[in-house]
Structure formats: structure tokens, C-alpha cells
Specification:
Elements: H1 2-18, H2 23-33, H3 39-55, E1 61-70, H4 79-87, E2 98-111, H5 115-181, H6 187-222, H7 247-268, E3 273-284, H8 289-294, E4 299-309, H9 314-383, H10 389-424
Antiparallel strand pairs: 1-2, 2-3, 3-4
Helix pairs in contact: 2-5, 3-5, 5-6, 5-7, 5-10, 7-9, 9-10
Length: about 425
């Protein structure tokens, strides 16, 4: 019993190892494996750093300054006052022309006209735009996966149909060899079928090489080995609507949001800024000028207050800046309209191709049935000793072409349905 359980577990492990991913799973694996997926984390970090820097603009700002100056003139006592003080024995040398100051200043914004709020909106808008652009890039990747996946399915079908043709030729070759041994057929009849078998074998070899190349490309995209199993056909579910829901639309919205935030920032550039400040310095002369005129001792000095800064230079460029941003917004609107128009046109075209393929498939079944009947009739002639090898090969080739065309059209229909689903993101 234990041996049976071990064998069962081993079989399940092997089966799981060779399980082929579905198309939807390939989409997911490709997104996770594609290097650009790391952009999301980088975008979030950049947004966090920018928002943090904007928030730190409200932290009290501390500045340290030092200066040493010499000036040509300083405040002095009037001559009459200086003479009077001198007669009384009071020494008043006056203020020194060399002055020194070591200052510490503290500034705290109390209103910035909405500048920091607009900067936060711009940071979020830029991050949203970058995320949307990454979504568009990864969505384009799904289209590449679709093309390779359905290319593999098409090659699988062609190889399968060509292998059936090879088996059919091999069966008829054995019949012709028997007839040749009985003196009914000649050696050239055998050569004709053998040559056709070699040709079909070359076709299978070429298609298998192409399939292997496609499978390697898909493995590189999804970062997973496919093994030797065949890929499964996805479900045929046509989109319920042709209204597009593509990630490009979110990208246009993100661009519009970022431009709107830039407009708000441009409007704040003409607003005044209010702040509280406190300044203290140690040096000579101090704020008591008379004390500085009596001696050159250094002293501590301080002041606090409210400061308003209002730069009117932004008024000169505000109008042009806003017009430039509004023009950029109009360009985004035009890009959106062009995208919607082209997407609608492409969806209509693909929908028409789907209807055409469905109609053709209905006829393909009849054509294959008729070609098979004709080929069987030719084989009956062969079995009855009525030899026309070239005619038989032509009938086999025509049936093979019909069955290959039908299977190829079926895959093409499935591929076009998924292209339509990708076009409208349904």
C-alpha cells in the first residue's frame, strides 16, 4: 500500500511538472517575469520621496550666517554733544567701522498660497501617469504572448494534419508495394509515393523546428519551461461589447490630472507667502546703537516677527504658462480621440474578419468531407488494381490541403477573437 501511494504521489508530481500553462496564465507569468514590472515599486518609492520632501517644506527652517564688514562711515555724535561730553570727562569714542555678526534665523511657513498642496498633487499625478504608462507597456506584452501562443497552436495543428497525411501515404505505399509484387503496379508508382513521403517528412521537420523556436520564445517571455506537452486551446468567448476599456484611456486621464495639478501650481506662483521668523545674533554692534558707540563689546541680540514675501515677477509669465498647459491638455484630448477612433476602426475590422471566418468554416467542413470521399474513391480504384498513382497523390494532397486549411482557419478564428478581446480589453 505504501509503495502504491509513493508511486501515485510521484505520478502527480510528474504530471504537475509537465502541465502546460493556459493563455491567461501565460499573460500573468509574462507580466510577473517582464523586467518592467519592477517599475511599479520604483514609481511608488519616487512618489513617497517627493511627497516627503514637499511635507518637509513645513518644517521650521534654520539658517546660520556669519559676516564681517568694514564700512566707510558710521553713526557719530554731533560735534556739540561730543564736546559737551568730553568736558564732563565722558569718553564716547563712537561706533567702530569694522563690524561682526554671527546669526541664527528660524523661519516657519504659515501660508504658502497653496503651493505645497499643488506640488503634492503634481507628485501624485506624475506617479499615476508613470503607472498608467507601465500598464500600457505590460498590456502590449499580452499581445506578443497571444501571437506566439496561437502561432504554436497553429503549428501543432499543421503538424498533426501533416502527420495524418504521412500515415495515409504510408498506408497507400504499402498497398502499392503489394500490387507491385503482384505485377499490377510498376516500380515508378512506388517511387512516386516514396518521394511524396520524403517531402511530407521534410515539411514536418521544418514545422517542428519552427514550433520549437516559438516555444522557446514563449518560455523566455513567461520565465517557465513548457516541457513537451501541447498547449491547450483557450475558450472561444467573444467580447460582449466593442466599447474599449484599454489602459491607454487611464494613461490619458493620468496625463490630464497631472496637467491640472500643474495649472494649480502656476496659479499659486502669484500668491503671497506668509511666515513667522525669529532671529538672534551675537556680534558688534548690537541693536542698542548707543551702547555700540560707547564700547566695542560683542552682545546677544534677537527679534521675532511676521514676514510676507510677494514676488510680482510671476505675473509676467502666468498667462503664457496657463495657455501652454491648456494647449497640452487639448493635445491629450486629441490623442484620446485619435486612439478611440483607431481602436473602434480596428475592432470593427476584426469583428468583420470573425464573421467572414465563421462563414468560411461552415464551407470548410463540406469541402473536407467531399475531398475525403474523392480520396477514398481513388483508394478503392487502387485496391481494385486500377492504378493511377499521380491521381491518388493529387487527391491525397487536395484532402490534406483542405483539412489543413480548415484547422488553420479554426485557429485563425480563435486568434482573431482574442485579438478583438485585446483590442477592446474585454
Amino acid at each position: 500500500m505504501m509503495r502504491f501511494m509513493l508511486l501515485l504521489c510521484s505520478s502527480l508530481v510528474v504530471m504537475a511538472g509537465v502541465a502546460q500553462p493556459s493563455l491567461d496564465e501565460c499573460h500573468r507569468l509574462a507580466r510577473e517575469h517582464y523586467p518592467e514590472i519592477r517599475q511599479y515599486d520604483l514609481i511608488s518609492k519616487t512618489e513617497s520621496y517627493t511627497l516627503s520632501n514637499v511635507a518637509r517644506g513645513w518644517i521650521p527652517q534654520i539658517g546660520i550666517a556669519a559676516q564681517a564688514t568694514w564700512q566707510t562711515d558710521v553713526p557719530t555724535y554731533p560735534d556739540a554733544l561730543a564736546g559737551m561730553l568730553s568736558k564732563q570727562g565722558v569718553n564716547m569714542p563712537g561706533m567702530e567701522k569694522d563690524q561682526y555678526k554671527l546669526a541664527l534665523e528660524l523661519n516657519q511657513h504659515i501660508w504658502d498660497g497653496g503651493k505645497s498642496k499643488a506640488e503634492r498633487a503634481i507628485a501624485r499625478g506624475e506617479a499615476n501617469e508613470q503607472r498608467a504608462a507601465t500598464n500600457v507597456s505590460l498590456y502590449t506584452l499580452e499581445g506578443r504572448v497571444n501571437n506566439i501562443y496561437f502561432g504554436i497552436l497553429l503549428l501543432d495543428e499543421r503538424i498533426g494534419q501533416t502527420s495524418l497525411t504521412k500515415e495515409l501515404l504510408q498506408s497507400n505505399l504499402e498497398k502499392v508495394c503489394t500490387l507491385q509484387q503482384n505485377g499490377i503496379a510498376i516500380q515508378s508508382d512506388v517511387y512516386v509515393i516514396e518521394a511524396e513521403l520524403l517531402t511530407v517528412g521534410q515539411q514536418i521537420t521544418a514545422m517542428e523546428a519552427s514550433r520549437q523556436s516559438y516555444r522557446k520564445m514563449l518560455e523566455l517571455l513567461i520565465g517557465k519551461s513548457l516541457g513537451d506537452g501541447k498547449l491547450t486551446r483557450p475558450d472561444v468567448a467573444e467580447p460582449t461589447t466593442l466599447e474599449p476599456a484599454r489602459p491607454e484611456l487611464a494613461l490619458f486621464d493620468a496625463k490630464a490630472g497631472r496637467i491640472a495639478a500643474q495649472e494649480r501650481l502656476a496659479k499659486t506662483s502669484v500668491m503671497p507667502r506668509l511666515s513667522l521668523f525669529a532671529q538672534g545674533y551675537y556680534g558688534y554692534p548690537g541693536m542698542d546703537m548707543f551702547e555700540g558707540m560707547m564700547n566695542d563689546d560683542w552682545s546677544w541680540n534677537a527679534m521675532v516677527g511676521v514676514r510676507m514675501n510677494w514676488s510680482i515677477g510671476a505675473f509676467y509669465t502666468k498667462k503664457n504658462t496657463l495657455q501652454k498647459l491648456r494647449t497640452a491638455q487639448q493635445q491629450v484630448n486629441v490623442q484620446r480621440d485619435v486612439f478611440l477612433f483607431n481602436t473602434s476602426l480596428q475592432a470593427t475590422q476584426e469583428n468583420g474578419v470573425i464573421m467572414s471566418l465563421k462563414s468560411a468554416l461552415a464551407d470548410d467542413d463540406k469541402i473536407v468531407s467531399l475531398r475525403r470521399s474523392v480520396r477514398k474513391a481513388a483508394e478503392a480504384k487502387l485496391e481494385n488494381g486500377i492504378i493511377d498513382t499521380n491521381d491518388l497523390l493529387r487527391k491525397i494532397t487536395e484532402e490534406a490541403q483542405a483539412t489543413t486549411a480548415r484547422s488553420a482557419r479554426e485557429i485563425e478564428l480563435l486568434k482573431t477573437i482574442y485579438e478583438l478581446k485585446h483590442t477592446v480589453n474585454q
